[in-house]
Every structure is written in structure tokens, then in C-alpha cells.
DNA sequence: CCCTGCGAGCTTGTATGTAACATAGATACA
DNA sequence: TGTATCTATGTTACATACAAGCTCGCAGGG
């Protein structure tokens, strides 16, 4: 039996990321509580946590506002992603096992792109990047990165429907993996940089 | 009248940063509640928030463990500070008003160093850096930076008692400010980088 | 027509009660 | 002796109760 707090947390987070609770909506604790089937206390704790993650803003005695995605937020998220990922690319030492892991995620991307499973494709993409970031061995940065990817989920519809985009993405990741295999840090950084650049321009075009 | 939650939060955070609640201590909600004079509910919310800030770890049905500062945490914090600050130094465009602000903090550092007020000295130092980071205009990174500085507070006794250290720090900041005045981004980055390097080695020596 | 004041109905903030869980130490037993 | 179990105690997780704050609409006066 999972805890009431985490059920409330998962419910609200999922609803926000899926836009079931759209940006600008004002949620009340009681509303959520009855939707999830728990009391207000665990809902409150979930909202508190979501506030620190930047998904909602709590207005005293008013309710919880689902923060609309702003242009500022989009550029902040991508700028920070680039900072974190190029840092990680330059620092991480990736042994054979990590390289295998990366190759596994790339393979998963190919599979799910072929199978048309956008959700799983996105998950594999995310895990690929996360593996690289985690390999840099800085827990603060790894945690930050997870939060960034969560936020990014709200910024675009799943883009894996577009075959061009998925093909480009797979190509990009293959290049990153190739660079990782050579061990040339500067080349890795360059590949990661290019990938993020194409990703952000594609997002801007489609959003 | 400030809220019960924020009173509890301030109390616990201050106590942890001042080592009144030392690393390794296991706190209970009730204990804190009666110390602060509020009920357990706001204490709980404060602890939840402190957990996301990395100061405590909540063990279900056990209590809140004040996380001891680990070697890993120290290096993560400083590594991340360097990443953030060199980024900001390279990106921020500092107009005349911002430069005046920096000069003001530097002046404050000089004053408080002379007056022997370690606490205010540290505050001015922090504000100086924060001004530069904020000038980069990325809210996510600015928020991260604040959290990093909070964590750093636990890592060393206030070092402003040592006249050598304060003199070096003032010198470093003066160089950064000078570089900012020239507008040469690469020079700014270099000055920031040097400063952090001397700061972290001094910290390691004294801790 | 516009402004002001007031009340209804929502919301949160906080306190408190209750049940379940975790742990430590004692005790019984092989 | 070592181990399993029982029990006492402390702690949280969650529900609920209640007071106080915010908002909005409406009535009444200018």
C-alpha cells in the first residue's frame, strides 16, 4: 500500500504534466483530496513539494495556482540543461558498463521509434541523458537535472509522433555515444551541444 | 504575525546551520513543536521543506535525521558553485547600476572586516556573488545558487575572524569588480574562477 | 451611474485525535 | 549460549475539527 501523500503527489503531478490541470488553473486542497480519496493533509504536503519543484504556486488562503509555462521558464530550463549536460559531458568518465548502458537506451529509442511508442521513446531519451549526467558523480546536479526534465515535460506535446524528429534525435544520440566511445571530452561536449541546439529549435518551432 | 510554519522553518534551519542541532541528530516533530510553541502540523511542513533543501532526511515513523555534512556534499556544493558562477560571469551583462551594487557590497565587506563583524561580512560576500548570478537572468539557476549558499553555511565556521582570509577575499572581489568594469567576460570568468579556487582550498585547510 | 460596505461562501492555516508502525529490551525457549 | 518472540514506548501518517482570511456579489447611498 503506497502512502496517501505519494498518491496525492503522483496524481497532481501527472495531471499537471498531462495538462489535465492546465496552466492557470486554481486548485483547492479539498477538490484534490476528494478526487484522490484522501484527506486534505497529504494533499497539502504534495502541493508543498510541487511548489518547490516549480509546478505550482501556493497563494495563502486562495489556493494552488498551476503555473503556466512562460517563455522565461522555457529558456531557463533549456539554458540550464545545456549548462548541466555540457558540464557532465566534460567531466564524466564513462567506463565500459556505462557505455553499454547508453547503448541500451539508444537501442530502446530505436525500438520504440519504430513501434511508434512516443511515451517510451521519450523515456529512453531521458534515461540516456540521465545516465551521462549521473556519471559526473555530482548528486546536486543530478537531482537538478531530474527536476529540469520534469518541467520540460509540460513544454511540448510528445514529439515522437514526428518521424523526422525521432530520426534526428536518434542520429544525435548515436553521435554522442560514438564520441563517448572515443573518450574525447571535447568531442562529447560538442555533440551534446549540437543535440540540445537542434532539440530546442525543434521545440520552439512546434510549440 | 508571521505564520507558525515559517517560525518552525526558521527555527529548525537556524538551529541546523548553527549546529545547535548537530549532524546526526534525530529530531522528532513533537520535540520541535514544543520548542517553537506550535503544533506538529507546521513543524511537519517545515521539515518537508528542509528535506528538499538537503538539510534533513525524513525516516518514516522514525524521525528527521539532521544530515551530517559529507565530503561528497562539500565537493558537490563547491563544484556546483563554480559551474553556476562561471556561467553567470560569462553571461551576465552588468549595467552601471549593477556595478554600483557590486561596489556597495564590496564596500560593506571592507567595513565589516574592519569592524570585525564576521556575520555581516559573510552576508555581504554572499550578496556580492548573488548579484552577479542574478544578473545572468536565469531564475532556476539563481534559486539553485541560494540553496548552495545555505548548505555551505554548515561547512565552515565563519572564517571572517582570520584577517588573512578576509584580506584575500576582499582582494579577490575587488579583482572581480575590476574585471566587471572592463566588461571582458573572459577576464571576469577567470577572476571568479581564481576566487573560488582560493576559497575552497582555504575552507579545506581550516575545516 | 458609481462607489462603499457588508455578508455569504469559499479557501487555507493550525490544532488535535487516533491508529499503525518501528524499535529496543526483556523474556522464554531450544 | 543464541535466537525468536513478546511487549512497552516512542514516533509518524492521516483524518478531522475549527477559526480566520480572502473574494465576490449585492444592496444602498451618493
UniProtKB/TrEMBL annotation, chains A, B:
SMART domains: FCD, HTH_GNTR. Keywords: DNA-binding, Transcription, Transcription regulation. The keyword Transcription applies. The keyword Transferase does not apply. Gene3D superfamilies: GntR ligand-binding domain-like, Winged helix-like DNA-binding domain superfamily/Winged helix DNA-binding domain. Residues 2-69 form the HTH gntR-type domain. PANTHER family: GLUCONATE OPERON TRANSCRIPTIONAL REPRESSOR, TRANSCRIPTIONAL REGULATOR, GNTR FAMILY. This is GntR family transcriptional regulator. It comes from Actinoallomurus liliacearum. The lineage of its organism: Bacteria, Bacillati, Actinomycetota, Actinomycetes, Streptosporangiales.
